[in-house]
Amino acid sequence: MNRTTLMCAFMASCMLGSAWADFDDVTANLTAQLSQTQLTAMEQAGGLLPLAGTPTCGVRVEHVVYPTLGGHGELTQASAALMVPQGTAAVCQGARPVVLYAHGTAFDKSYNLADFSSPTHPGFDEALEIAAVYAAQGYVVVAPNYVGYDVSPSSYHPYLNGLQQSQDMIDGLFASKRVLAELHLPVRSSRKLFLTGYSQGGYVAMATQQTMDILGIPVTASSPGSGPYALAAFVDYMFAGHPDLGSTLLATWLVYGYQNSYFNLYLQPSDLFGSTVAPLVANNTSEFNLVASPALPQTALFDSTPPSPLLASITPAVTHTAADPIFALGFGEPSLINNNFRAAYLLDATVNPDGLNPATGLGLPSFTAANPIRQDLAFNDLRGYSPNSPTLLCGGINDPVVFFPVNTGSMQAEWAANPPVAPVGVFNVDSAPLAQDDGFNALRAGFQALKQGTIAQKGVAGWVQSYHGDVAPFCAAAARGYFSKF
What pLDDT shows up at residue 17? Predict the structure, then answer.
């Protein structure tokens, strides 16, 4: 069965943006009206003004609730933020381009990008960023909160489930466009559609772009940021002794998402989880409660005792680079994942290796993998995708959370070897300004200044801790600059 057939089987129909038929199930309510003056003050307080620029428009925010599908095809609901520019300037009225935005990994059930009620809300910073960068500059923004968050009744979030998250995004887009039309505002959506997102959202943006290509939904341009696109190779790399920063949280989300989507990772939690975590999972502790539990290992993804003497050299791996302290943090006792599961995973990776060649960045995931999580990862891996619309990948070369060479680097190598029909490119924000400015030199210089300031204030360790988050607004600004060309 090919991917298109699987996609149509998953989505109750192959009609555009429709896993459900009744638009009457869509509801919306106004949550905020932010003036240019308010937005300017909020940007200044959040340090966004230099990157986002002075707002041209005010922003109206609607909270949209819509039906969609969960990870195993069950009917459920999700919500989205609809951000509409308002004002007298020409770019704040009439037919405006739409930015469909995918948010990054969030560990709080209440994450809601439509809630501007308090700066302490867990979704506030990201919501302000996209309002400032896009909506305040004349873009209509649709930002789904995803299944499992906010008012969604789902008991789990289908994390990095490419088909489900694409469906969620498309359903949120169509529902929000319907709401916008019914509000009868001076703004309407144009035919231009841009996709973007960062971290988990970078992956979701590219997966959505792929789904839209298959379904024939036109995408004007896309700019995913710092996503785990080569998902199977990325997780293989972690199991081989290279855990990323924050891997216990990300692994918890991944395991919960796949177990509840495919039901194939374990028969009982102790098959996979370590001794302190397995009892909590057995008691049906949600992933939201688990990541807040003191029983969750803070950094130890794997046991510091090798599963066998033969694996001592990768417990942890030693590369004699600046990444080694990060890898070492990923091992300890108690660990999130037990040694038996790690050993079985590594055995399958040896017998059915991922095709990625680190020297060239080329190669597809293993389609013969026997280990269930490796099968799930291979199915959700985005290698092999060739975009039909212009695409700019963005990230930072030294990212300690979503490793740039394995993910962005592999997509870059693949597209260089087999160029897509549309123009594609990569912007590394952590690079020196070019002799001939490509339009991104100001962002490069700004990131270098931030980097040096962070090191001076917090040291190298502090810089590493904040790196992944620091790159995000620079990628958002780069995406807006890229979209302006279309």
Answer: 43
Sequence-ordered list of residues with C-beta below 8 angstroms from that of 189, at least 6 positions apart, any chain: 95, 96, 97, 98, 140, 177, 180, 181
The predicted-structure confidence for 58-94, as pLDDT tens digits, reads as follows 999 999 999 999 999 999 999 999 999 999 999 999 9
Domain ranges for the chain, please list them: 3-229+385-483, 231-380
Burial class (CB in 10 A: 0-12, 13-18, 19+), 318: exposed
Distance of alpha carbon 347 from alpha carbon 477, whole angstroms: 43
- What is the structure's pLDDT at 22? 53
Question: For residue 406, how many other CB atoms are within 10 A of its CB?
Answer: 23
d(CA 312, CA 308): 7
| Chain position carrying tokens 């510091």 | 304
Superfamily designation of domain 3-229+385-483: Alpha/Beta hydrolase fold, catalytic domain (3.40.50.1820)
Contact 382, 462 (CB under 8 A): no
Q: Look at the alpha carbons of 428, 434, 438, 444 in this order and tell me if their dihedral is positive or negative.
A: positive
Q: What is the pLDDT confidence band of residue 266, given thresholds at 50, 70 and 90?
A: very high
